[in-house]
Amino acid sequence: AGIGKCVALDLARRNARTILACRSRERGQAAVEEIRAATGNPAVLLRLLDTSSLASVRAFARAVLREEKRLDVLVNNAGVTGLPFAVTPEGLEQTFATNYLGPFLLTNLLLG
């Protein structure tokens, strides 16, 4: 939803292979179908990613590096706000992990 969906829609309109990295399979798949229908671009894909989980970030990066020939653009758009204080299973404060640590790790892993 929001900025991420708009960016994905614009990239798909430009005929880019576009990967939506989403926490929710249901919401992500709905966005993929909507973007494919609006653009006629079948190369819009869903991959699950939770940037609050460094394990999820590592798994996502491994899959992208294995499955994709190249990566031209990375848009880090995950973010949460207004959550009550929570700690992830990895012992990190959830907002900090989601908004900063996860995207930082993802970028660095994809740089190779």
Automatic annotation (TrEMBL):
<dbReference type="Pfam" id="PF00106">
    <property type="entry name" value="adh_short"/>
</dbReference>
<comment type="similarity">
    <text>Belongs to the short-chain dehydrogenases/reductases (SDR) family.</text>
</comment>
<dbReference type="InterPro" id="IPR036291">
    <property type="entry name" value="NAD(P)-bd_dom_sf"/>
</dbReference>
<protein>
    <submittedName>
        <fullName>RDH11 dehydrogenase</fullName>
    </submittedName>
</protein>
<keyword id="KW-0560">Oxidoreductase</keyword>
<dbReference type="GO" id="GO:0016491">
    <property type="term" value="F:oxidoreductase activity"/>
</dbReference>
<dbReference type="InterPro" id="IPR002347">
    <property type="entry name" value="SDR_fam"/>
</dbReference>
